[in-house]
Amino acid sequence: MKKTVFSILGLLLFLYILYTVGIEAIIGSLLGLDLLIFSSALVLLIPSLFLKGLKQKILLKPFESASSLVENTKIWLIGFFFGTASPAKSGDTVRALYLKDSFSISLGQGLATVFLERIFDLVFLFAFAFMGVVMLGLPAGITNTIFVSLVAFFAIFVVVILVMLNKSLVRIVIRPFFNFFAPEKFKASLKEGFNDFYEAVFSYSVHKKVSFSAGLLTAISWLIVFGQFYLLAIALSINISFASFILVLPIILLVEALPISFGGLGAREAAAILMLSFLGVGAAAATSFSLTVLLFNIIQAAIGFLLFNSMKKPI
């Protein structure tokens, strides 16, 4: 229910932004898109997607799973489709089911892989976001407001992760719901999945090389994404330096990642208008940039949808 409410609010915010900024101004900005530069950004999707598939493949190593890079990339894209098409990206967990069926691992291990990947992504974005706030050189009042907001979100993120990693506490919290709602015939498998998840998550503390490699690939893949989105900005005649751009982009992407709407709709546009305004970018251009980011997400989700439909045994 809450996810649906947030999704509706995100859509209303998006429509409000279109109304206040002006649809004609936004369309005018989009019509000026340099298709050659846009195509260059599109080409970068290829290494970006394969790096994400490679990171997933590496995160599966502790489970001795034989998996190909191509298959991992396909499953990542299918998961991205479900994550984009569902409120609050709740469909992301569908990827764990595909990992389980494709690579003969447990559902708990599949969930652990998705969970760890998400943590790596968010930690990287938070690190760059904090660096951006410090280095942007904004007026003290604005810097303090954004910094305090970031600290608050990061604190919530850390608390949620710590709570989720406390197996005993989570067991106590979910036990009443488990006993009341879980069908009797599924209780044994659900308990097994619960234990598998924590065993899998904690196994990464032993496989330090896997964690380091996944962290390195996270940084490389995000830098490619930064390059893609910078090309989108240039294609829209947003003339700012790459150094300045990567200081504000992580905050926009963090807001987009919040589980409050379909694909970050509304929230991403608001964040883009705010953060890019500090670099002298107008609201119409910022909204157009955000819409091209949305288009990139739709393209990836569409590929995932086609792959999902092409599978012999879709889940």
Automatic annotation (TrEMBL):
The keyword Ion transport appears for this protein:
no
User: Which stretches are transmembrane?
Assistant: 30-51, 119-140, 146-165, 212-232, 238-258
Question: Where does this protein reside within or beyond the cell?
Answer: Cell membrane
Q: What is its main location?
A: membrane
Q: Which domain of life is it from?
A: Archaea
Concerning Pfam families, the annotation shows:
LPG_synthase_TM
Q: Which UniProt keywords apply?
A: Cell membrane, Membrane, Transmembrane, Transmembrane helix
Regarding the membrane, this protein is recorded as: Multi-pass membrane protein
Return the InterPro entries for the record.
L-PG_synthase/AglD (IPR022791)
Where is it found, in Gene Ontology cellular component terms?
plasma membrane
PANTHER family linked to this entry: BLL5419 PROTEIN (PTHR40277:SF1)
NCBIfam families the UniProt entry points to: flippase-like domain
In its UniProt entry, what is this protein called? Answer: Flippase-like domain-containing protein
What high-level taxonomic lineage is stated for the organism?
Archaea, Candidatus Iainarchaeota, Candidatus Iainarchaeia, Candidatus Iainarchaeales, Candidatus Iainarchaeaceae
